[in-house]
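Example record

Each entry pairs one chain with its bound ligand, iron/sulfur cluster.
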Amino acid sequence: MSERWREDALCRQTDPNLFHPAPGCSPAPAKRTCMACPVRPECLDYALDTRQHWGVWGGLDQNELRRLNRARRAQAA
Ligand code: SF4
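Structure tokens for the complex follow.
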């Protein structure tokens, strides 16, 4: 899978720590950035395909990613 989409990632222009918030810290600032990111679909696909379980990817936090991954696996079964 090509990862050229990363070149256009909006998070490259921000503080990377925002996308891996410490426990108890809000993922909202990162999620807001994702909503304006031109490669959000590609990022989300990558996160799901590679089972990223930590941080914000494609506008979803780790709990949302886990839920979506579970739903995808259930659909595939
Ligand atoms: S969707 Fe969010 S995490 Fe993904 S590349 Fe864009 S800004 Fe970064």
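Helices lie at 28-35, 40-49, 62-76.
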